[in-house]
Design brief:
With about 325 residues, the chain is of the alpha+beta class. The chain has one domain. It has ten helices and twelve strands. It has helices spanning about 15-30, 55-60, 75-100, 135-155, 170-185, 200-205, 205-215, 220-230, 260-270, 305-320, and strands at about 5, 10-15, 110-115, 130-135, 190-200, 235-240, 245-250, 280-285, 285-290, 290-295, 295-300, 325-330. The strands form four sheets. Strands 4-3-6-7 form a four-stranded mixed β-sheet, with helices on one face. A four-stranded antiparallel β-sheet has the order 10-11-5-12, covered by helices on one side. It has a two-stranded antiparallel sheet with strand order 1-2. Helix 2 packs across helix 3 (about 75-100). It is globular.
């Protein structure tokens, strides 16, 4: 239970009405579109889209974790698993209707959001992570979609990206960084590293930036149109003092959605492809290494401060221009 929140000017709010108003103001601003990211023209031909099979629904259901809180629909993962073939058959029919119409029921666009404290002052909303409790049946639908798109999206990711990918691990990147530190120290080679984090990454990215990335990475047009529509007209409710505080969502990919990590890393890769870093970075085993990243956590490499500062500036400018998400750094 929150006992107090800080207003934007630092004033301490302790009254229920003031705290509810602060949450509404803060998250309405966070989820509001801040800039217009123009959509790229998509002149590709339509791909033939196979219907969603019962086996695809079964695979998605079997991957669901147990003991997870249900969303607004009240459906638990256990209920979907115990429903068996006859239920999965009905769900497959429903999902095919959604794919045919390239949209989802309005109820699926509504969520409940809880906020989880991170490090720092617990009276400052910036130090909370919003997690959306989405309708379980909606998450199953996006799970089916992401299962269809994963191979194609992963093929577009470079080896420097280890986030949200099967067969890749944070430990691998940490070992690479340790080896770089050991070798440069042993050989007395100068090394500069900048650690980059995207502020409110999932919540702040403009949906048009995601769509542009999917077009450039050749995701079928029907999937893209469906994703546009399911991210249009969304809203969430925060519960404080047993009152629901409704907030419209006009940007970002939703925390807690199975498809969001893939969408974000696709957009991030779109940013990196615009950077001309052919002569930047450091040599590792005869190859040039400019960066490593795990989802939205990135480390840049260079031999001197001037070069790594230029790389950081270029990354920040490209990120703001293409996604409207600024970066935070530590050297």
């Amino acid at each position: 239970m929150m006992n107090a929140l800080k207003a934007e000017d630092g004033t301490r709010l302790t009254k229920r009405f003031d705290m509810e108003r602060r949450i509404k103001e803060y998250y309405t601003s966070l989820f509001a579109s801040k800039s217009v990211v123009p959509l790229v023209e998509d002149n590709r031909e339509e791909d033939e889209m196979p219907p969603i099979l019962i086996s695809e629904v079964r695979t998605a259901v079997q991957s669901l974790k147990a003991d997870k809180a249900p969303g607004p629909d009240g459906i638990t993962n256990e209920a979907l698993k115990f429903g068996g073939y006859e239920l999965w058959k009905i769900i497959a029919k429903l999902f095919n209707e959604c794919l045919e119409n390239e949209d989802i029921p309005t109820q699926w666009k509504q969520s409940l959001t809880i906020i989880i404290p991170k490090k720092g002052d617990r009276e400052d909303l910036k130090n909370y992570r919003p997690i959306a409790l989405l309708p379980t049946i909606y998450k199953l639908f996006t799970k089916v979609l992401v299962n269809r798109m994963t191979r194609q999206l992963d093929e577009q990711q470079p080896r420097e990206q280890a986030g949200f990918r099967s067969g890749f691990s944070t430990i691998d990147h940490l070992q690479v960084i340790n080896q770089i530190l050991e070798r440069t120290k042993e050989c007395k080679i100068p090394l500069c590293m900048v650690f980059v984090d995207y502020e409110k990454a999932f919540d702040s990215i403009e949906i048009n930036a995601v769509i542009n990335a999917l077009v450039r990475q050749n995701i079928p047009k029907k999937y893209i149109r469906t994703l546009v529509n399911i991210n249009t007209g969304c809203s969430t409710s925060f519960r404080l003092f047993n009152n629901n505080i409704a907030i419209p969502i006009n940007r970002g990919v939703r925390q807690g959605d199975t498809i969001s990590p893939k969408l974000f890393t696709a957009a991030l890769e779109d940013v990196f492809r615009t950077l001309s870093w052919e002569n930047r970075g450091i040599m590792v085993d005869g190859e040039l290494l400019t960066h490593l990243h795990l989802a939205d956590d990135i480390v840049l490499f260079a031999y001197n401060v001037k070069t790594v500062a230029e790389m950081l500036k270029e990354l920040n400018e490209a990120s703001r221009r293409m996604t409207n998400v600024p970066v935070k750094t530590s050297i």
